[in-house]
């Protein structure tokens, strides 16, 4: 019988390592099919919470934020592009574009979890930003993606115009930051095991397998204690 695991992925829709990490995690779960089952929830994290509405040119932003040269920035983008291809994800134009505020996308993701379509919406938001050079702060573009995955566009529009779920998302952000999450992706299994960064599928497979074994061992211990 498969061991159920609760997996929270703390991430941002404009984080390339987050989609790389997810694709690797998904590959690992495929290899562990029949051994583990995963209940995945996406948790909010903003890489750039103070980003103005117009956003910022991506190379300018990266070189300023991390104190690296344009050449280093280009090398990093090439590495990310290759890592994406390694896990079956093809990034679009990573040589240009802009960085945007993503808070409204996180509010829609909070709502989508209630509708059972959170992962579908999250992956579509990744595609909007990375494959289509879209703007995840633009309400029209967000609503188009909502409709694309089969969610209620009118309900989403109400969320965007009223500020609904602002408090819930802020509280979730604070919870993970207060627990030491300062970079993403952060994959948290059963509320206590942390797997950081865009790890290869083999790392996820080994970690999840070990966690599942521990869970099953604890079950046996509990049953023995009750007997």
UniProtKB/TrEMBL annotation:
Domain DSBA-like thioredoxin: 7-208
Highest taxon above the source species: Bacteria
Pfam families cross-referenced by the UniProt entry: DSBA (PF01323)
Residues passing through the membrane, by range: none
UniProt cross-references to InterPro entries, sorted A to Z: DSBA-like_thioredoxin_dom (IPR001853), Thioredoxin-like_sf (IPR036249)
PANTHER family with a match to the protein in the record: GLUTATHIONE S-TRANSFERASE KAPPA (PTHR13887), THIOREDOXIN SUPERFAMILY PROTEIN (PTHR13887:SF41)
Record-given protein name: DSBA oxidoreductase
UniProt organism field: Paraglaciecola agarilytica NO2
Lineage: Bacteria, Pseudomonadati, Pseudomonadota, Gammaproteobacteria, Alteromonadales
């Amino acid at each position: 019988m498969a061991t159920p695991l609760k997996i929270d992925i703390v991430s941002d829709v404009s984080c390339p390592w987050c989609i790389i990490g997810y694709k690797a995690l998904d590959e690992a779960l495929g290899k562990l099919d029949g051994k583990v089952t995963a209940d995945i929830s996406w948790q909010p994290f903003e890489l750039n919470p103070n980003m103005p509405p117009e956003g910022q040119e991506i190379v300018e932003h990266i070189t300023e934020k991390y104190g690296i040269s344009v050449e280093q920035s280009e090398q990093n983008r090439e590495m990310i592009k290759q890592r994406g291809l390694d896990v079956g994800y093809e990034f679009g134009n990573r040589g240009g574009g802009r960085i945007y505020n993503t808070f409204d996308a996180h509010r829609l993701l909070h709502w989508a979890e209630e509708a059972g379509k959170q992962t579908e919406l999250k992956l579509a938001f990744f595609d909007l930003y990375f494959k289509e050079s879209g703007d995840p702060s633009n309400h029209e573009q967000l609503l188009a993606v909502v409709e694309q995955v089969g969610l209620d566009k009118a309900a989403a529009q109400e969320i965007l115009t009223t500020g609904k779920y602002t408090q819930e998302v802020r509280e979730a952000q604070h919870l993970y930051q207060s627990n030491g999450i300062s970079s993403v992706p952060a994959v948290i299994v059963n509320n206590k095991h942390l797997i950081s960064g865009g790890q290869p599928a083999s790392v996820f497979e080994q970690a999840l397998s070990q966690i599942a074994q521990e869970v099953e061992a604890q079950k046996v211990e509990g049953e023995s204690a009750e007997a």
